[in-house]
Specification:
about 270 residues, alpha+beta, 2 domains, three-stranded antiparallel sheet, about 30% helix
Length: about 270
């Protein structure tokens, strides 16, 4: 199979941090994996290995697949919805059983665009400039979700105690719960956002053209993700929300270091 792929599309051997294209980065990950991977896993490995660093690597990978699969000489093949492999790694039988390349490339289209699960309340500074930091995976750029809109859950450890909606901004709603009747009852929060993350890390405007099918699929996906029912084997149809891992506000560490230094000076002064 590999002899049919033009030389211009063969990936280079690259090292971490090399300035390579998204297509080359994807080929590097798939070649090392030796089989098919979901586009989100490919994106995570690209970020973790330092091949590329953007705020939304999954979107960049999905876009690359969409463009590449439109070319008959693409080195990729779509195995299933959102799952891809290198042609050169497949046997003729495996290729014959794979999904046609003319189909949609498999990037999901539900209403949910981003989410964060069990973020810690004490990793956020609730005074001053709003900031809710997260990143898609290790090595990816940070994103500020303070102006996200959608729904959220407040947790007391692993128990959901409150469900709310953020129609203005997520940060504003969560901050209000630090001083209202719920103030002392939650230590973590989860959120499900309608605003996607662009490659430069900004949040896009939420879509308003949702069909009833999209709404139903989104509600199903949200319930599965938040409740984690044991008999559900998948996250729900067309679940497009990419999970972001919480990044502590860097000011928190600075404050801890300053407090430790002040304590040291007081200790020295009193000895």
């Amino acid at each position: 199979m590999s002899k049919d792929v033009p030389k211009r599309r063969r990936s280079r051997n690259v090292t971490d941090g090399a300035d390579i294209s998204w297509e080359d980065a994807i080929q590097t990950v798939l070649r090392d994996a030796g089989g098919a991977l979901r586009y989100t896993e490919i994106a995570a490995q690209i970020s973790a290995r330092g091949l590329k660093s953007v705020a939304n690597p999954a979107a960049s990978v999905a876009t690359t697949f969409t463009k590449s699969l439109a070319d008959p000489n693409t080195p990729f093949i779509r195995i299933g919805k959102g799952e891809y492999a290198l042609k050169e790694k497949l046997s003729p039988v495996g290729e014959a059983q794979s999904a046609p390349q003319s189909e949609e490339t498999g990037t999901e289209t539900g209403a949910l665009r981003a989410l964060g699960m069990f973020w810690q309340r004490d990793r956020v500074i609730w005074s001053g400039k709003p900031k809710l930091l997260g990143r898609q995976s290790e090595g990816a750029s940070e994103v500020d979700f303070s102006e996200q809109v959608g729904v959220y859950l407040l947790h007391d450890r692993d128990r959901v105690i409150y469900v709310g909606r953020a129609g203005d901004t997520l940060f504003a709603r969560l901050k209000a719960h630090t001083t209202d009747r719920l103030g002392g009852r939650w230590d973590r929060f989860s959120w499900f956002g309608l605003r996607a993350v662009s490659e430069d890390g900004t949040l896009t405007d939420p879509s308003v053209a949702w069909t009833h099918t999209v709404v139903i699929e989104t509600l199903e996906a949200l319930l599965i993700e938040s409740l984690e029912p044991p008999l559900n084997r998948k996250r729900g149809d067309n679940f497009s929300g990419v999970e972001y891992l919480q990044v502590p506000d860097p000011e928190i560490e600075s404050r801890k270091m300053k407090q430790a230094f002040d304590d040291f000076l007081r200790y020295r002064g009193g000895s």
